[in-house]
Amino acid sequence: MPSNKSVSDAPILQFTNCRILRSHRLQREDLWVREGKILNPEKLFFDEKGSADIQLDCKDSIIAPGFIDVQINGGFGVDFSLATDDFKSGIDLVSQKILSHGVTSFCPTLVTSPPSVYHQVLPQISIRNGGAHGAGILGAHLEGPFISKEKKGAHPEHCLRTFEEGAFQDLLATYGSLDCVRIVTLAPEMKRSSEVIRELTKRGICVSLGHSVANLSQAEEAVQHGATFITHLFNAMLPFHHRDPGIVGLLTSDKIPAGRRVFYGMISDGIHTNPAALRIAHRAHPKGLVLVTDAIAGMGLAPGRHTLGQQVVEIDGLNTYIAGTKTLSGSVATMDTCVRHFQEATGCSVETALEAASLHPAQLLGIEHKKGTLNYDSDADFLMLNDGLYVQATYIAGASYQRAAFSAQPLLPVTAMPATNSLVLSWWSGESRQICVGGDCRSPA
Fold it and tell me: What phi and psi, each to the nearest 5 degrees, are found at residue 323?
């Protein structure tokens, strides 16, 4: 049946022979994509009388929503907390590189820094959809400087701040602008923090609790004022105690406002969180778990010395420390590694592991209508994975950006491509990029 082009001239892609993660389970269905969106095939067939222009055989792969990393400090030699002249090229590099690890959207994260760094860096972060330039940018995550001295972790003490009179204006003066900000991590026990939480929430900014010595009642009060996230659970907070579980107690608190869900970040790198702690958190509150990398500039590079904002850090295997100490300072884990470790450590289902890196962060940010799912009309940002949850290909807006070393042949052979079709398909073949137009494939010069 010929495609009906009365609705759109854009080609329709049909992904066949795959298992799609939809409605919390893997379903053996085809995935239909047009103009960067997931199509409803029933509407295509019955309303448009249309069919696929291109069919792609997925070889029984899993198709899952693209991963969303809401806490990533940098990677591949780029530190988001350093004000450099080429900051934009650095963020573009990270956007490109994380595609091979399944991340299709992220929140570039700045650790505690002097006001001058925020004033220089934040205007250079632009919220944008993913595409040929790389993963999409959802807005900045500002982790500090309004955090606890006692639980500063790898944050430089001389840059920490408290809320003075006119707390929210103080925050604005520190950051310079909130135009591109999506998440702010603060310590809720600080005086005047409630005012700040309310004001940030009014502006649609997610407030996260972390680097804190807050007790449970202080954490619950913060949630009642609008906080919805916990920054890297268990790390840089009071340890769980049976008489006052602290921030950790939010996972089972009975004082969370009706209709509100508290989410919590977990660094599932095998270093920051013991597998038993991962299991405890997951079993206590599975629908709130959000996998984050907390990756630093050294991710993707050899061991050695790198930066994390104002600090020098050393990478020793998978461990990252402030130079000369044993204070952990972020991770070098990629998101696909975190997903695999989480599934292995908890024994959870494949679906649960994948949703912890896709659906849950999307729900946290209130974007689940377009990201984090494969529902009809959502953005066609998705991954192709094997049963071991290794990423085989990453798609943004329905276009493929595949791993360079995956295969010397196209992963997805085109079984139907009309000669008149102008769609350009691309993939990586060995060390070179392959461009196909109308079935004619070649390497670009």
Answer: -55, 130
d(CA 320, CA 195): 35
The CA angle 137-139-144, to the nearest 5 degrees, is 130
DSSP annotation of 157: G
The residues with which 391 forms a beta bridge, in sequence order, are 385
Name the 3-class secondary structure at 392.
strand
User: Which residue type occupies 234?
Assistant: F
Residue 353: closest CA among 345, 364, 341, 343: 343
Does the annotation mark 69 as catalytic?
no
> CA–CA separation, 110 vs 368, rounded Å?
24
Answer whether 42's CB lies under 8 Å from 271's CB: no
Q: Indicate which residue of 294, 336, 379, 381 is catalytic.
A: 294
**Token reading at 209:** 């609790």
| CA-to-CA separations, 129 to 72, 104, 300, 371, 396, in angstroms, rounded | 17, 9, 24, 11, 9
pLDDT the model gives residue 402 = 63
Record the tokens describing residue 404, joined without a space: 């360079």
pTM assigned to the model: 0.90
Which contiguous run of DSSP H or E holds residue 20?
strand 12-22
Residues sharing a CB contact under 8 Å with residue 383, sequence separation 6 or more, in sequence order? 62, 63, 64, 65, 66, 67, 102, 104, 391, 392, 393, 394, 395
Contacts with 4 (C-beta within 8 Å, 6 or more apart), sequence order: 48, 49, 50
| Contact between 103 and 137 (Cβ < 8 Å) | no
**Bridge partners of 266?**
291
pLDDT digits (tens, 9 = 90+) for 38-54: 999 999 888 888 889 99
Quick one: tokens of 131? Answer: 């595409």
